[in-house]
Amino acid sequence: MANQTKLEIAAFIKENMPGFHKKRLESLVGLKLERVLSRKNPYLFKAKNVITAEQLVRQLLDAHLSSHEETVFGDFLESLAVHVCFLTFDGWKSAAEGIDLEFDRDGIRHIVSIKSGPNWGNSSQIKKMRDYFRQARKIYGQKRSLVAINGCCYGRDSKPDKGDYLKLCGQSFWELISGNPLMYQEIIEPLGHKAKQRNDEFEAEYAKVINRFTKDFLKKFSHDDGTIDWPRIVAFNSAIQKPLRERVL
Fold first, then answer.
1. Whole-number Å distance between alpha carbons of 36 and 38
2. Is residue 60, in this structure, part of any structural domain at all?
3. Is residue 243 in some structural domain?
4. Strands (DSSP E) along 19-171, which ranges?
5. How many domains are contained in the chain?
6. pTM score, two decimals?
């Protein structure tokens, strides 16, 4: 791979990483305790013997942020993969439903569904991806050779041949879309561009949210002696809000 292409890939990462950090920070601003508490499993935290408000708030917030970060960073990795393939094989963002990337290599059209890691879906989600691949094949018909790829940005899969598609993970995926067996390593360094500065900003806001949530939690979900009011938490999370209508016979 030409040095100029490597420089362009690094520049793309550095240019777009601030967007990830911005969305990460925005996920904290304006966040409400009730929103987080309503979406998490209160029974799990009780089973883990969480006994302080700060401890529970921190675990609730971390679970919320982890899920959000996975989604946002997954979107970034998809855009990076498309850009890498554009620079190396003139790849393009596919217009076909459920297909993220298309490119031609060695006379073969590749259609790619990009996921962050190898353990991304259940059986019904994998079936849906297979349906998307079948629809794409119908569009192209028998006019050209075509291979369907489930590309995973990290991880491994010991049996990549899934019959009607290939599952290529980590090094294998990045090499496919770039022609460079070391691409999976070369993209890691630019990801750290100004990471400390961005993380310091995030940690400052994170501390504010922890303190605000803890204060709010103690006011709304604790007993007078300071212990956690678990029945009240479960009621907030799961109780029927309105009486059910009687069934009309």
1. 5
2. yes
3. no
4. 92-93, 101-105, 108-115, 146-152, 166-169
5. 1
6. 0.84
Could you give the CA distance from residue 13 to residue 77 in angstroms, rounded to a whole number?
9
Amino acid at residue number 14: K
Cβ(206)–Cβ(29) below 8 Å: no
Exposure of 39 in the CB half-sphere (CA atoms within 13 A): 15
Confirm whether 228 is domain-assigned: yes
Beta-strand relationship, 108-115 and 146-152: parallel
* Residue pLDDT, tens place only, 100-150: 999 999 999 999 999 999 999 899 999 999 999 999 988 887 666 899 999
Nearest to 229 by CA among 215, 241, 240, 219: 219
Q: Is the pLDDT of residue 241 over 80?
A: no
CA atoms of 120 and 167, how far apart (whole Å): 12
| Rounded distance between C-alpha atoms, residue 148 and residue 137, angstroms | 9
Note whether residue 245 is domain-resident: no
Phi and psi torsions of 109, nearest 5°: -80, 125
Cβ contact 174:180 at 8 Å: yes
**Domain span holding position 214:** 3-236
Whether the predicted pLDDT of 247 surpasses 50? no
Determine the distance from the C-alpha atom of residue 84 to the mean position of all C-alpha atoms in its chain, rounded to a whole number.
19
| Two tokens, residue 222 | 């604790």
Residue type, 178: S
- Could you give the CA distance from residue 29 to residue 51 in angstroms, rounded to a whole number? 27
Contact 98, 15 (CB under 8 A): no
Tell me the C-alpha distance between 114 and 78, whole Å: 6
